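Sample pair:
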Amino acid sequence: MMNRYNLIFLLIVLSIAISSFLKESYAYGNDMSIAPTLIVAQNWRTLIEQANTAYESGNYVEAEAIWRRVIQLKPNLAEAYNNLGLALGQQGELEGAIAAYQKAIQLDPNLVVAYYNLGLVLGEQGELEEAIAAYQKAIELNPTWASAYNNLGLVLREQDQLDDAIAAFQKAIELNPKLAESYNNLGLIFGKQDQIDDAIAAFQKAIAVNPNLVEAHNNLGLALEEQNKPEEAISAYQQAIALDPDFAEAYNNLGLALKEQGKLTEAIANYQKALQIDPNYTGVYNNLGMALYQQKQFPNAIAAFQKAIALDPNWAVPYNSLGLALGEQNKWEEAIAAYEEAIALDPNYAEAYSNMGVALGEQGKLEDAIETFQKAIELAPDLAVAYNNLGLSFYQEGDLEESVAAYERAISIDPNYVEAKNNLARVRRELQWRRVPTNDPQE
């Protein structure tokens, strides 16, 4: 059994803000690519134009160099430090970006964009309290900045302050009813709170405001699946892909939806497309492996699981999946080793315990199997398959009463569990047969 463990909900952080008076000097042309050159202009306003052009062209190294030259000429120009922070951030130099934004704020405590950009970088680094403080300061300086409320909401969501996050997104929408990203992010919170109707309404509003917001289509698909509307979900994923043919997450989610419909060949094609776009998308290898497993392509499934493990050796799920495929090849020792690795990585992985119990049972190690199933049940008291497997082990040991109890528990958890019902009926017939008195006069 595969959980929908890697469905992607995409958060949208609105773009960085560049200091407004500098933005006015941006130059746009047909060819904005600029080869790195030695900057000889000494007029700081000319340098600003060059820096803006370099930044807009994606030449962040050159933009950084020019902003540093501007700072040499105008060391108290707060906006220059802000924009230096942008160039550094685009190069992944987050500590340098933070220092630049902080210097901008030191020079001009009212430079609202510097607080906003500082919040973005702090959020990326996981410094959530500091990010919240930065956004709150930006809002204090500009109470009508909808984007700042949106990004504040995202950080609050990361801290599980969901009510405050909702309030922030709603304020962003109040200030800017056309801010589709805030509707999308609001929908994510409703989804997390299992308010699926509200989530769907929010995603649909985001799409109404901006039909090209690809993440909203993807997230709408996920919410529709929660409502058991697979065809509508598939349509949403397909729309996301139509808008962005390189949207690997949408291909993955479409594959999962198709797999749930039993359309394994189509699911596999979508997983493969996702991997073509992103060859390092670990979760898709596991999903691909499970679809291949269901098609009984066990060697190919094993290869997919092994690739997932190679990409992320600390992820327990593909080890469990690998164990399943190895078991189908009767490689029980290897399967047990895979389950043990999954459990070592995630000691609360009930499904891995249950699957390992099956492997132990296949080796005739019934006591070990029973103990392992009981551990799975301890971790997940509603794991019906573990009770069914426990019942089978008790049956094989000849303990029919315990077997009946285990099967009954499996059925109470899942009244539609056909295999457990069949197993229970068989054991009850055997118990009845054992209890039928004979008419033998010798007794």
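Confidence is low (pLDDT under 50) at residues 1-41.
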